[in-house]
């Protein structure tokens, strides 16, 4: 008999990551476009503004920060991760050597790489916006802190990564066994009920009080949990193509 | 050596798609999986490919459980009309990707076959016509040279000339690099010449699994005067029967015929063999079902 091919999971994942990262590149270009549009839209008012006026004096403050760019990037990561788990992408995986597990791991690595690139895009767009405003509003522009510290960078990366991980987990859950679908639907429903019925019960004050590094570690641990669950569910999922 | 072993395999999607299937498939053979629409062929192939999990029973491919198994995936390719590739890849890129994944990939052969079929390598997979798509998918499956090549209706949409050519291509590839081919097709007559074995599935069960010649000899056709055949037919199971102007022709199980050919000939009864396609048709036809009866 023809000798059988022995390829390790690691080798397959590496190949899948290489091709997926190349093929899904349009996801990053969509982020660039969204960020530029968002940067232009917020260039006049910033992420927040306030003002007051007297008889002869009117003062108006516009704050420009990374926060809003981060929110847009996190939403982008969530949507892109969900897209990675849709039928079209899953069926494409079957055209080469792959298993559901290898595809899930490859998606996770692509998501991590893309999260990192997304943070770079996000910061670049932020600096572009700052630079643009600096050119227009030379005199009234006050730079508080132009340098973005590594802890902020890590916080941005972990936040984007976490949203990507949640997207992957949610998308994979609905392709997994029926029990998992029911469980996830119930949890989502309960979460929504809790959010709308008693929003005060969701207290994030203690989280905000933590240092950037602590929040980053917490986010990364949560992302790791989501990634592990994604692999576990993918391992049990059947292929549905019709 | 066996590459696939199934033991009491069942799969249910609310209704039973497969029921207690037990079979063994040897390595390096071209096997036709035949059955009517909805018989359970694709479900069985999906289980072999590791895409579906049996509800009960066991299945082993290359001595391992194939479900979500990377070893099975590395040695198997599943070609059907659902095969799809990223919109961003041209056919040439797809071949490059195939070469990157499959260790036995034959790029030169792929180029030659696609050139023969007149398929432009700069085109995208989604831009191909139905026939071209089937041709490309089949080429992709052949040049990957996997130990287990599963072809689910590979010729759907191809014109007759290309179909004939590609049956030869399958045979030539098999001779050049022997491996196991599992092929399902509605064109059994065209495919007969390349098959070594047939597995016939009906209503989720395997009702026949035999070498092609043995399979064809399962049923025979008897024709002769109705009077002479009446007694004979009353003692055996009749798969189909037609009576016209005092002459009867009937299809029966060859193993139930205990009278020699000479005696039958003396009674004016002639025996004729059936094609594999006809045997499939009669074995899977519901008793008493006749399209003519609808119009009577």
Structure description:
The complex is a heterodimer of chains A (242) and B (296). Chain A is mostly helical and 242 residues long. Helices cover 69% and strands 5% of the residues of chain A. Chain A has one domain. Chain A is built from 9 helices and 2 strands; from the N terminus they run ααββααααααα. Chain A has a two-stranded antiparallel sheet. In chain A, strand 1 and strand 2 form a beta hairpin. In chain A, helix 2 runs antiparallel to helix 3 and helix 3 packs antiparallel against helix 5. Chain A is globular. Chain A starts with 8 loop residues before the first helix and ends in a 6-residue tail after the last helix. Chain B starts with a strand and ends with a helix. Chain B is elongated, with a radius of gyration of 22 Å. Chain B is of the alpha/beta class and 296 residues long. The mean pLDDT of chain B is 91. Chain B folds into 2 domains: 214 residues, Rossmann fold (3-Layer(aba) Sandwich), CATH 3.40.50.300; 77 residues, Alpha-Beta Plaits, CATH 3.30.70.
What separation lies between the terminal Cα atoms of chain B? Answer: 53 Å
- Estimate the global geometry of chain A from the Cα principal axes: globular
Return Rg of chain A in Å. 22 Å
Number of domains of chain A: 1
Shape of chain B: elongated
The count of β-strands of chain A is: 2
Report the helical percentage of chain A: 55-70%
**Which stretches of chain A are low in confidence, meaning pLDDT under 50 for 5 or more residues running?**
none
- The helix-and-strand class of chain A reads mainly alpha
SSE run of chain A: HHEEHHHHHHH
Name the biggest interface.
A-B, 33 and 39 residues
What strand line-up does the widest sheet of chain A have?
Answer: 1-2
Portion in strands of chain B: 25-35%
Beta content of chain A comes to under 5%
Query: What count of structural domains of chain B?
Result: 2
